[in-house]
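Regression report. Comparing outputs from two consecutive submissions.

Submission 1:
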Amino acid sequence: MRTASVERNTAETQIKLTLNLDGSGKSDIDSGVGFLDHMLTLFAAHSGYDLSLICHGDTQVDDHHTTEDIGIALGDAFRQALGERKGIIRYGSMWLPMDEALVLCAVDISGRSHLDYRLCIPAQKVGTFDTELVEEFYTAFVRKAELTLHLLQFEGKNSHHIIEASFKGFGRALAQATAIDEKRPDTVPSTKGVL
């Protein structure tokens, strides 16, 4: 089983997280940020990963540290769970429609961190959640997971729909990329021999 557990403790957040890439999409999430819980639950369901997360953060300040540090912890767990990355497909992409919103998510589990973030979220907040934190989450994840992620919005007016489309698409694209290639289950998918 491709699993990892991460604990991250700082002056701003205390996080315990477990990730199973070969799960069934179950989640048990309590970040202290309701909207982020909703997005991570969707991510787990659409990726098929099992995700357990509890975070105690300084949300009395705002949700920034919690959101960013969860991205760091989840990216770290993802990288650890993949191990040597043998047998994975490596690439994945998903066009994800969510009502009027349409977002393309494409990933390359390349060993190189790169984020191309082109979501145009019109509202500054969804509920009490600052929408600029969506980019902070993805930036933190990509840096720790060591992958390339492109998030491109083609349509969308509703901020909730745009963000939700990105998290669902991200889950689906990662599920494709981390699937085992039955033709080459023991091969690292790179002519370099490593990722």
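Submission 2:
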Amino acid sequence: MEVQKIIDILSQEFPEPKSELNFNSPFELLVAVILSAQCTDKRVNSVTPKLFELADDAYKMSQLDVSVIEEIVRPCGFYHNKALFISNMSKDLVKRFNGQVPTDVESLRTLQGVGRKTANVVYAVAFGGQAIAVDTHVFRVSNRIGLAHADNVLETEKQLMNVLPHDKWGDCHHYLLLHGRYVCKARKPLCDSCKLTNFCQYYLKGVKD
């Protein structure tokens, strides 16, 4: 597997890799990432302005009734759970971190309502840390290409950490995510326009034949 060549191609395809979620602070990013689970960034960006108008920090969010959060985030799906996660996370920040989002990934992972993927995204995007967040796009693309051979996100993350250069983890997360969002789609991957077909096991073993 020619990992550096794959990274080089993806870096040309997405020369400025960054999150497509709109946010003005680490707290807003944390909320947006929680909402983005099984939901498009576009949909999240359509609801967060109203939510952040009411509460743009942990103190304000922790004071909102969960039902108020639910009503606003309803379009994002799974709104009961997501509203509860946001509420609990905010209260946890106030209680344990003086309302401030911690800057290290280990502390982020201890927050109520915050999973490993969410913590990794916030650590990498908000604070410039090196972490690989494995969402459905990263999981699909990395296993299709052959950067990983795993049947779950945690094992995929571990394998990617072993093959990708540490100083590129944050960028590679976005490369794989964006490639999955716009090219290597779940149901109808655009293999005809993909620049990675010479390296992609999915294409070489299946589509090409």
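Expected: both submissions complete independently.
Actual: both completed, but the second showed a warning that disappeared on reload.
Relevant detail on submission 2: The chain has a mean pLDDT of 95.
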